[in-house]
Amino acid sequence: METIIRFWNVLQGTYLIPAIIILSTIVFFVGANALFKIVIKVIRSSIKVNSVSYELMVWPFRLLVSLIVLPFFLHYVPITPDVKEFLKHTLLISSIIGIVWFMMRLFRLFEEFILQHYSAKVKENESARKIATHVSLARKILNVIFVLIGISGVLMTFDTVRQVGLSILASAGIAGVILGFAAQKSLTTLIAGIQIAITQPISIGDVVVVEKEWGRIEDITLTYVVVQLWDQRRLIVPITWFIDRPFQNWSRTSSELLGTVFLYMDYDIQPETLRHELERIVTSTPLWDQRIAKMHVTNTSEKSVEMRALVSAANSSDLWELRCLVREQLIEFIRTSYPGWLPKVTMEMEQMRTPDKS
Question: Is the pLDDT of residue 288 over 50?
Fold first, then answer.
């Protein structure tokens, strides 16, 4: 009996406590994982936004659960004080990294939720584009802040680094000036990104003309802007470009636009007839938003009359298609019904006289 008791004490001192710790950690980890899945199901059933990637939070959540449980059992592990101190320091660093990772993923999940919520709105909804831009840039700015805080927190856990930081505090002013000159370009870019986020001269989804290229704002980062051009090319523009230079934004406050079609006719033209034909063309297509459809004589020359058709559309894509349609059908109408309206070159020749031989 004494042998059994002695064996139980040895077993308890060497294997039982670590086994209980490992088993408890596994049980807590599995239970927390199951709880996470239940919470996600409840959120999906109540919010009904299934396309949001909730899986982004799985591994950060598991890491935080493990880091919460392990310190409680570390006290009972039969190890030397030096090893225990090393493990505590490792857990502290891992906790800082885990919290930063968890917060970055949490804000990314929040961004996806906002974007999915507003994607159900009208594509040309200007307020939805502004909110999407605010959320996207705010997340990227917070990511930079979280990373800086995390690096600072990890470094401050080391006594040597803390002492070095205190020793160079007196020369921080000089170092700040040097770093300011060295990182002037980077700081300017970062400030420009924050300024874009606040003032919003551009938003995600805006139609812009940059460097004589027509495109739509696809993404805005803290350093550059991605413009998707009409032929599916991507134009990468430094974000400072939108602060320093003028550019065209066709959907700053509204996506509605006006477009023109120019025709050059002979002086025999009847503007009222052409005006009625323009009205017939625009009323027969859903590309017209029923706001403006006018025909004017905008200029004359010794050879032709300039006619301008002014039409409106809900967005730039519809306007381009509408202008092409109006141009094609007006040309066909004039060619088939009134070919005499096409420009003509009139030449007057003076008859040559025969010299008198008498």
Answer: yes
